[in-house]
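Design a sequence for this backbone.
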């Protein structure tokens, strides 16, 4: 699923001015924000990996941006040696 330029700009704008609507993001919005593909977010959900997510309905899931940010920050490293010590995604 490819985002249009307009959708990418909107997703980034939402991060800059948080509101109730921007406390959560869809996988499509996360793709624009993080560069991690929609398919990867979907695969991680099926595999029980990645940050926690919320099932709004059978066809709609959301991620709390604070949880995504915390999950990403927990994976931050300063060298490739540190990266080799990280557990696999979702572990």
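Sequence:
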């Amino acid at each position: 699923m490819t985002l249009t330029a307009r959708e990418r700009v909107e997703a980034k704008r939402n991060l800059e001015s948080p509101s109730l609507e921007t406390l959560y993001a869809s996988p499509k919005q996360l793709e624009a924000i993080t560069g991690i593909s929609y398919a990867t977010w979907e695969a991680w959900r099926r595999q029980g990996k990645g940050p926690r997510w919320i099932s709004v309905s059978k066809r709609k899931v959301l991620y709390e941006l604070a949880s995504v940010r915390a999950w990403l920050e927990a994976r931050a490293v300063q060298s490739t040696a540190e990266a080799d010590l990280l557990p696999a995604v979702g572990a």
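The mean pLDDT is 83.
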